[in-house]
Structures are given as structure tokens and as C-alpha cells.
């Protein structure tokens, strides 16, 4: 596999996509939808006390989560018919009989689709700059979040292309691609919720209650100690079900916002108030923490440091993308020993 071969296939794919003539309308629609969302969100943030919460923080987080959601809808459509569509039109065999290897064809097609997806993502940069101007968002945080979105888009494109190589019909590959996206987003949340309910255990809790009279006054003497059984969930046993979720990866991997003086705590702290990325990341990291007994009698042990979830999720996504490219290349090897019934060669 050579860079020249990959570039040749990618250029050809770009030419084919540009000939359709619909990309300008698609790009304009993408920009208009994100612009409408960003403007409506900013109007909704006018009620904020800007001395306490700078609007750039929730604006950036909301826009990037929205962009990721749109990307998961657009990316499968870019590659779900890239291989079986060429096979149906009889143009794939023309490429396969050249000196290009199966790996070059697979990676070149993916590069073209991913490059197209990055063009869509580039149209969101004006809104990222807008959030930075509004305040509360640093260049490091903005760059890291955009980079993660770009990587997740590439993984979805790779998976959809692998499904395009596995299934003979384009409509089947497209439906399976969206089904997989649903499984990675909504499916992981449902699985985590169901699995967490199965981790509930009966544990003994001890409470110390002060004695009071009928008027609520504390009576002298030692407090009353009560012990009873309580149902306690243990999400730390099933947190890994949330790791592959793209929204979890994006939120948990986002660097903390710049620090700012908090008038309530009177300390310099990261500006995480009203930040959807920080809120999701905090909840996800809390799911890895062992359940603490805050109400038991005696001192409460110090909680361990919160551990990140995104490295595991991002690692899973990278492996999923790499495996998808391998499947695509394997299905493009020639000579073909067997074909699905009804599939044409040229």
C-alpha cells in the first residue's frame, strides 16, 4: 500500500462526488441548521448573569454536542454505498483490475469520505470562534473538542464503508450503519441503565439520630443509633458500557474550561457552571466511583480521585475503525472466490 495509490483513489472519489452537483446545497443546509441552532441557543442564554457564567461556555458545549449528533447522521451516508454502489454500477471491477491494491482502494475511498466529512466540520468553525469571543473557552479546549469530533466522524465513515463491503445492497448497508450508530449512542445508555439496575445490593446502613422533644428541641444525652437494610446500586461495575458512546467520549475528553474566580466559594475554579460537556463528563466519571456511605455512623472515607472514561471509549472507537478498514480491504481482494447471488462483476 502506497501513498500514491491512496491519493489516486481519493482524487477519483472526490471527482465522482463533485459531479453530483448536490454538495453545495448539502453544505449550505448544514451551515444553516447549525447557525439556526447556535443563534437560538445564544438567545436563550441572554438570561444568564454574565458576571457569574460567561455565555461562551454553554454555547460552545451545546453547539459541539449538536454538531456531533448531526455528524453521526451525515457520516454513514458518505460511505454506506461507496463499495456496493460501485459494484452495482459495474465500476468497481475497473478499479480492481488496475495495479492498485485492495488496501489502497479501501483507504483511498475512506480518505475521500472522511475528507468530505471534515469539510462539513470546517463549516462549524465560525461558531467555535464565536464561542471563544463570548468568553470562557480557550483555544486548547476548542481544538481538542473539534479534533475528537473529527476522529469520531472518521470512525463512523470507516464502519459504514465496511458494511458497504459486507452487504450487497446499498439500502441494507445504510440501514445497518444507522442501526450501529443508534446502538453506540442510545443503545449504550439503555444497556447501562438496565445493567446498573442489576447491580443493586442489600447493604446495612447505620444512622445516628439526635433525640428531640415534640417542639423539635434537642434533648440531652447520647444520640439514638438505628441500623437497617438499604438497596445500594453499584454502577462502578458496569461503567464500561458507557465508554463507547460518542457523546460520552466527547464530553469526558474535553479539557477543563479556563479558571475564574468563583464568588460563592471565593476561590479560583474552572468555569464548569452551565457547561454541558463538563456536566456529562462529571456524571460519567462518577459512575466509576464506588458507592459511598455518606449517612453511616462514623467518619466518611475520602473519595478516590475520579478516573476518566474517555481513553477506554476512544480506544474502542479506534479499534472499531481499524477493524472496519481491514474488513473493507479484505472484501476488495481479487481474485474473488465467491460472490453473493445477484452481484455483478462488471
Automatic annotation (TrEMBL):
The chain crosses the membrane at residues 25-47, 59-79, 110-133, 139-163, 175-198, 309-329. It comes from the Bacteria. It comes from Saccharopolyspora erythraea (Streptomyces erythraeus). Keywords: Membrane, Transmembrane, Transmembrane helix. This is ABC transporter permease subunit. The keyword Transmembrane helix applies.
